[in-house]
Amino acid sequence: MKKTFLSFLTLILVLGCNQPPAVREAELDPSWKFQTGNDLQWALPGFDDSQWPEISPATSWENQGYAFYDGYGWYRKTFTIPQDIIKAVIHYGGLSIRYDNADDSDALYFNGQIIGATGSFPPDYISRYGEKRTYTVPLEYIKTDEPNTIAIQVYDGGGDGGLLTSAIIIQPVAPALNISMEYVVDAENGVFMGEVPLTLSVTVNNQEEKTKKSVIHLAVTTDDYQPVQEFSRKITVRSQESMTYVLPLKISNPGFYRCTLRLETDGVKGEPLTFNIGLEPEKIISPIDAQEDFDAFWQETRSILDSTPMRPSMKLLKEYSTGKRNIYYVEMKSFGDEIMGGYYAVPKEKGKYPVIITYMGYGSNPWMPHTDGEPGFISFVVSVRGQGIYKAGNKYNDKWIVWGIEDKNDYYYRGAFMDLVRAIDFVCSRPEADKDRIAAEGGSQGGAFTMAACALDNRIAVAAPTIPFLSDYPDYFRIVDWPRSDIDAYIREHPQATWEDIYKLLSYFDIKNLAPRIKTPTIMGVGLQDPTCPPHTNFAGYNLITAPKDYRIYQDNGHNTPPEWQEVRMEFFKKHLELD
Predict the structure, then answer these.
(1) What is the pLDDT of residues 11-37, one digit of tens each?
(2) Edge-first strand listing for the sheet containing 133-138
(3) Best CA proximity match to 185, nearest among 161, 201, 208
């Protein structure tokens, strides 16, 4: 018996020693050394960053004392890999580093070696805002028994900048398990409507040579990160088989929710799958908070615009007018004698034509309509004050959201909203324009502009805003960091300012409060995964429109709409403009 017991114990010890180390993750301390500017010496582990200040990657650098700064910033951290994961790092041959976002492009260095980049830096700048980052560090670059240095180079092309991630996670490179998970939201376009089962279908595919025991983890929160549900299900999947499991969703209130799915196998957690879902968005209620003098304020504002001579000018751009339409550069006076304008495309064949007015996004670079674009239509791509064609060197420092926020009469969007109306004035002054057939469209800020223009002027016949901005500020600022971070920075620099006063001012310019005035047939495009203008804020205004309306939710899109939207909105335009 004694010999048998010892043999059994020996067997346990041998098997235990042969077990691969568990793969655990660790969250790095949220205090990082930080410096604006750009010097590749800052990637080196021997560089002395002791005089650098510290900031958190959880929010923008503008929100931490670097207001109005666009360009390069470097984050540095020196750390020792925790003992509870070092064995797995050695065993599996590397370290994974991941974080949720960078605004806008980034490159990660480990002990002076570049590991990878997402997006690209000037002169070939490409933003990858909103994309998750995962970088794998080979074992040869890792110091297993002494400190290591991570340096992250970030470039911000405008607006907020920084890492913008809740945490930076390190984890041993996971063993190459050939087992995967995919999901389907059991609702059209990811949005549940009516009395239907609220479920996800999760399929696990096991291509390993052995049966695998795994755990499916599901976490659900509201769009402002309040916990709703946590759920785990143990499963067994035979080798070379797939199994589908139906997971119940415990959501009940109309709105949008954040879901995170994760598969754990042999103690190894796979990459999380994160996505948004919706429940009966047309029942979302965001109470109007307009002030008593709301209508009087806009009536007075419009009166001032109407008394301001337009004095338009048009310049033919011959080099861009080679097709069926002539392209003009136009300018005119607007509210407060400010200049606004844009690019105006007119069919060369004489006649009266319907018009599509396009309002631009926040800080968008200018573009012009194509000489052969939108056949049979006049196109007017509008630049409001300080944006578009006026963006370079504008007096607003690219912080339009806070300019003049001390007083509603001086606030940037008072004049900008009147520029939208002035664009309609210009179109209606043109003999070639059919002023009874004017359509308006735009995305993001342009979507908000489209809705504001319809609320403040009754000459637009049909509208197609997408992913609209500037709506339902109190809820907006609970869901996403920006543009609240710009206002946070303003408050730090102006201690006399209060959120109560700021919300009161913003209520005059909130699309939600303007929406009940819209009498224009409207179709709205929504990106269900939008991290910038979240769907809740889109519907806060949409649900208050009393005119004929429709919407499309695009399940896989973020702060954009797919190519098919162009056809959808044109069909809507032609229907309500009574065009064949």
Answers:
(1) 444 444 456 677 788 999 999 999 999
(2) 26-27, 169-172, 94-99, 133-138
(3) 201
